[in-house]
Amino acid sequence: MTPVRVLAVASEVYPIVKTGGLADVAGALPLALKAHGVEMRTLMPGYPDVMRLLAGAAEIRRWPDYFGGPGRLLAGSHDGLDLFVLDVPHLYDRPGNPYVTADGVDWPDNGVRFAALSRIAADIGHGLVPAFVPDVVHAHDWQAGLAPAYLHYDNRPRPGTVMTIHNMAYQGKFARELIGAIGLPWESAFDVHGLEYFGGISFLKAGLQLADRITTVSPTYAHEIQSDEGGMGLGGLLRERASVLSGILNGIDIEVWNPQTDPHIAYRFGAQDLTFRAANKAVLQQQFNLDSSDEAPLLGVISRLSWQKGLDLLLEAIPTILAEGMQLALLGSGDRDLQDRYKAAARANPGRIGVMIGYDEILAHLIQAGSDALLVPSRFEPCGLTQLCALRYGAVPIVARVGGLEDTIVDIGEAGTSGRDATGFKFGPVTADAFAGSLRKANAAFHDKPTWRRLQLSGLATDVSWRNRAGDYAALYRDLMASRA
C-alpha cells in the first residue's frame, strides 16, 4: 500500500471548533484514514479556542506582515489529530462564531480571513514545511476553496487537489476587487474559468473550477447538485466537470456516538438489550417538561432552524403530532421567526411540545438515546449526520427523500424490493402533507411493537462508521496521484 500524505484544509474541526457537520467530518476522517495508509494533517485558523487548546504548539514560521498583520504557522496535536494552525490574531482572534459577529452578520473581512488560510495551504503544498510535503491538498467548503486556486495560479509543480462540497448553499461570494488584495492574478483569475461569478467572485466556484477532483458527501447529492436548482448557480459547471465529481457518504465517529459507552446519556444500552432506552426517554421527557408516558411516541429534533432543514414544515405538522398523540422534543437555533414560533408552540402545548433554543452536545446525545424517532424533514441535505447517529442509538429516522437522507435510510415500504432491511421512513415530495402522512405511518408502526423493534435493530446493525468511507477517500487520493504521475 503506497503511503499518502494529505493536507486537509478546514475552517472548523471537531472537537475543537464546531458549527456544523463539516467539523465532524474534518475531525473524524483523519483518524479513520490511518488504517488506509494515509497520513493526514489538518490546517485550520487560530481562533481563540484553538489557541487555548494548542498552547504548547511549535512555531514553524513567523511573518511580520501576513495579510495585514503579524502571523505565525504552528504545528501541534489535539485528541489524536495532527494540526497546522495559522495564528494571525488580527484575522482570527475574535469571540464567538468563526464566521459571523454577535449580531449574526458576516465578518466584513471574511474574504481576506479565508484567503489567508488558503494561501498558507498552497505554500505548505509547495514545501513550506519540509517535514510534511503533501501529495494531495484536500480543501473543505468555500472557506478553503482558494487553496486549489492559489496552487493553480502559482504555475509551479504542485500536489494534487481535491475540493469537497459540504453544502452548496454557502459559496463564499465577494466583490471582484478582492482579487488584488489577496494576491491572485487579475487577468487570469477574474475569468469565467476562474473565480468570476455573476460579476463578483466565489471561493467555492474557484475550488470547483480548479481542483483536480471534486467530491461531495453523498451519491444522491452529487447527482442533485448537477441540476440548475440543486446546483444553486453552479449546476452547469458541475455538469461540465461530472467526470471528476463523486459522492462519498459521510460516516460518524462510532466511539463518540456509542450508546454502550456514551457518558452523556442517562442509561447506557446496546443492541442486545434496548430496555434502558425507556429510562433515557423518561429523563428526556423530564428535561423538556413533557408528560411522562412510554406509550406516546417521542419525536426528537436536533437541527439548525431554517428553511433548508424544513423546520417550517414541522411547524405545519404540529396538529398531526398532537392528533396522533405524539410528543416533540426540539433542540436547535437559527431563524429568529422560527425560534419564536417554536417557543409559542411549546407554550401553547405544555407537556406535548418541548423546545430548547441553542445547542448542547450532552442534550443532543440524550435526544438520540431517548427519542423514539428522529425527524429530518430537510428540503435538501448533502448527507446529514443526525440520522446516522439515530440509527446507532435505536431512534427510528423519519426523513425527506433528498441527498444523503435518501442514501442512508431504507424506507419501510422499500425493504422488500431493495433487498435491504427497513430502517425508517422517507417522504417525498418535501411538502407538509407528505410529511404528515409519514408521521401517521410511523405512529401506526410504533404501536406495532414487533415492527418497531425490527426497525430499531436494523438501524443498530447498519454500518455508519468511517471505515469504508475512509477507504473510498484513500482510493481517490491514490487514483489522483497515479493520474498525475
From TrEMBL:
* One Pfam family of this chain: Glycos_transf_1
What Enzyme Commission number(s) does the record list for this chain?
A: 2.4.1.21
| UniProt catalytic activity | [(1->4)-alpha-D-glucosyl](n) + ADP-alpha-D-glucose = [(1->4)-alpha-D-glucosyl](n+1) + ADP + H(+)
Q: Does the keyword Mitochondrion apply?
A: no
Describe the location of the Starch synthase catalytic domain by residue ranges: 5-240
Which function does this protein serve?
Synthesizes alpha-1,4-glucan chains using ADP-glucose.
Report what the protein is called.
Answer: Glycogen synthase
Q: Which organism is it from?
A: Bradyrhizobium stylosanthis
Q: Which gene encodes it?
A: glgA
